[in-house]
Amino acid sequence: MTRNTTRTTTPNRPRVDLRGRYSLMPALTFAELRMLGRRKVVLAVALFLPMMLVGLSYLGQRPETMEQWGATLGVYFMYALMMTPYMSTATQLSSRRDTLVYKRLRTTELDGAELIAASLLAVAALGLVQMLLMLAVFLVAGAPAPDNLPLVLLGVFLGLLLAPILGTFIVSVTRNHERVMFTMMPLLILAVIGARLLDYPVEIIAWLAILVPLVPAADLIAKGWGGAGAGLQTLPVPVSPAVADIVLLVGWTTLAIFVTTRTWRWEPRS
């Protein structure tokens, strides 16, 4: 007598090649950097914006005290954050999404979050080069050394973290590439104006300005360069302005990631 036995086989699951995954993300980041290098307008802004801002400083009223230098450089670093990491991310991601580049790349080992992160790392790296160039150019042009360099670096780091994420958020709530320029302009205008209102004599206006995303980064840089007398001086709550800056930057970053992950689409909306 023979017994019929039924063998159950477990379906083969795709094996994730972690080595390929970890090598693919840096490769995609370097590829994005090369693509950014081919965009002449982006490269020109990143390289020549520091020199242009130095020229504006000397053509206008040149800062004299440490507090004035801090306030001026906080605003200028804000310009750099908005011009390169924020705007470049919004235009680049919306173009990639509309041409379905990211949708096709999702067939690789990388998941969606890693694809976007690779692009953001490339833009943040270009922004970091721009920031370091600005730092060197201003020091050579006669700016004093920062009063608190770690605070300046913290402001730069948190700003470079938030600006590309805000650009991604703008893309996630915009239907297509043609509309992204209009969608990102309100935040750009508010951030530039808000950075200039941090030391406004009417306190409530300065308090409202600090609530605008990326403006706390300008305040941190201003305080790190010019001392506690630069930027926002008081708050309606018993918290130091520097601590409030850090909390706001982390909070805006968390909120932008939360909204983006729930509204992102891999193809344009009709």
Commentary on this structure:
The protein has 270 residues and is mainly alpha-helical. The chain is built from 10 helices and no strands. The protein has one domain. The chain is 72% helix and 0% strand. The model is unreliable at 1-19 (pLDDT under 50).
Keywords:
0% strand, disordered N terminus, mainly alpha, 10 helices, 270 residues
How many helices does DSSP assign? Answer: 10
Number of domains: 1
- The counted number of beta strands is 0
Shape call: globular
Topology as H/E string?
A: HHHHHHHHHH
What is the share of helical residues? over 70%
User: For the report, how would you describe the main beta sheet?
Assistant: none
Q: Cα-atom Rg, whole angstroms? A: 22 Å
Mean pLDDT: 81
Structure at a glance:
With 270 residues, the protein is mainly α.
Helices, strands, pairings?
Blueprint: H1 18-38, H2 40-59, H3 66-98, H4 101-105, H5 112-140, H6 149-172, H7 177-196, H8 203-210, H9 215-226, H10 241-263
